[in-house]
């Protein structure tokens, strides 16, 4: 089966995509016989067993391509190209033609767009010309919005038109949680086309380990440890976590907070640490590679994901696979990944006091926390395995062909 995957491209010749969890997903599908093609602007071509990365032709200067201008005007009746920017319309047509060329030359069986925009729109335009089936996976950032923190642009009529067009052209729309699909329905997705495929985790790579050994490997103290892994942006609730940490320290002063990730709030976190004299209690470890992540989960006592908005959260499954209980916000798809009171605890979003209370529940009762961790791993193995996710994806592929 030849699949054209429209997804964030990597500028790293060694990586398949820009995101490690997508690399894992594609690799698992390739092991099952799927041959993937991708396309991007980076100029880095790549071909190996079951994976081919194509590149778009170089951009031409505006005004040098009569054909591109004519095409952009010819498609002016298409909602997906309904933009006041002629330059943007020309770029969409250029990308569409590049995809169309690959579809025909490589005998592509199916187009799989990851995120509804922009790749969903590009896939819809390509399907319009080639008739090749289109699958779109929604991953949250393409449908959720939190205007007060500048997250999402769906009050913009242009973006909504693009989404509706992509949804209209798709043969199947996958959401990584029921919350994502429910949101997609409000944006125009047809319910009969939608399905939920929860994320999966490699529970062999992410597995329980000795906490003391993990802390020694990572040069962490023996103190109770709270762990956060993710993008350091306002949507992840990092500011709430910092406030909650101060409350936790009033009750368990020796507690440490370890933050792994990069993002726009990194300097703000460093300033918070310095102002409050937390240099020995709050550690910023920056970006952590996949090979080290299991050790971080094994080393912590509690994993936290206090997001303001969240489609699912791969890190919740990774923590659970390592037998660590999690505290997560009651938003989006998080309640589908944490069974409250069984595998972890849910807290109210944007409520540092409630977040601190839930963290303290686990720090104060280590036996209850350990039992939640054990149940979390059992649930992951039974319901969130990588094999289960891949089986469901392949089933969708077969259904639309």
Structure description:
An eight-stranded mixed sheet has the order 3-4-2-1-5-6-7-8, with helices on both faces. It has two domains: 2-59 and 86-200 and 386-400, Rossmann fold, CATH 3.40.50.2000; 211-383, Glycogen Phosphorylase B (Rossmann fold, 3-Layer(aba) Sandwich), CATH 3.40.50.2000. It is 44% helix and 16% strand. The protein has 15 helices and 14 strands. It has helices at residues 20-31, 66-74, 86-105, 116-130, 157-169, 178-186, 211-218, 238-251, 266-275, 293-299, 314-321, 334-337, 352-364, 366-383, 386-400, and strands spanning 2-6, 35-40, 46-48, 51-55, 110-114, 134-138, 172-175, 194-196, 225-229, 256-260, 282-286, 302-305, 326-329, 344-347. The chain is globular. The longest helix has 20 residues, at 86-105. By secondary structure, it is of the alpha/beta class. The model is unreliable at 59-77 (pLDDT under 50). It starts with a strand and ends with a helix. Helix 12 links the parallel strand 13 and strand 14.
CATH superfamily of the largest domain: Glycogen Phosphorylase B
CATH topology of the largest domain: Rossmann fold
Helix tally equals 15
Major beta sheet, specifics? Answer: 8 strands, mixed
Q: How would you describe the shape? A: globular
| Amount of beta strand | 15-25%
Please state the average pLDDT score. 86
User: Radius of gyration in whole Å, from Cα?
Assistant: 22 Å
Q: Termini distance?
A: 10 Å
CATH architecture of the largest domain: 3-Layer(aba) Sandwich
Number of strand elements: 14
Name the helicity range: 40-55%
Which structural class is indicated by helix and strand composition?
A: alpha/beta
